[in-house]
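HOLO CASE FILE
Compound: S-adenosylmethionine
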Amino acid sequence: MKLIDAKKDQYRKLAHEQGFRSRSSYKLKEINKSYRIIGPGSYVLDLGCSPGGWLQVSHQISGNQGKVMGIDLSFVEEIPNVKIIQDNIENIQVVDEILSYFNRKADSVICDLSPQVSGNWSVDHAAQISLNYSAVKIMERVLNKKGNALFKVFDGEFSAEFFDFMKQKFLKTKRTKPKASRKPSSELYCICMGYL
Ligand SMILES: C[S@@+](CC[C@H](N)C(=O)[O-])C[C@H]1O[C@@H](n2cnc3c(N)ncnc32)[C@H](O)[C@@H]1O
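Model generated. Tokens follow.
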């Protein structure tokens, strides 16, 4: 077995053992340990949340004083005390639903959006970045000043522009690739702290 497959398996096995719905859960855990995007009591919005691994991790971190809401095109099985809606994040009307659930602005917006991949990297990269810009439009309406955000980025010709765009909106931004993310996948994470 190749090292990469072994690593993939290791996180899949761990997710199964610990009851998390995705390997990606470990990416969020790892990122949050270093950057504290989410804290106890945080109100968290998860855009592109299916099957729900990040929702589980967010709920675990934010605790009973926090509130977690997720949106995805696909159906997501219920998670106790987490609000899930099945909708398209390109539909800006979801903003009303978000604000009415939180009853105030959110402290953290996390996005792990992926388009249906075609296998053509330039096409998939462009589609993923475009989803991120749609997510930013929502973020701008619902994130508290000084709030934090996290965006997955398929790395490619438009990613530098996206990182620069986010840099203007936050006190601090950083790009990272968690250990739980497979080395050959051109997936990065944009960490954004302190919404201006
Ligand atoms: C990699 S998965 C997210 C995994 C999740 N973070 C977890 O840990 O379970 C990416 C998700 O983005 C969703 N997605 C893609 N385009 C979307 C859109 N326009 N609106 C809502 N969700 C979308 C997909 O349906 C998919 O479930």
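CASE NOTES: The chain has one domain: 3-195. The mean pLDDT is 94.
CLOSED: yes
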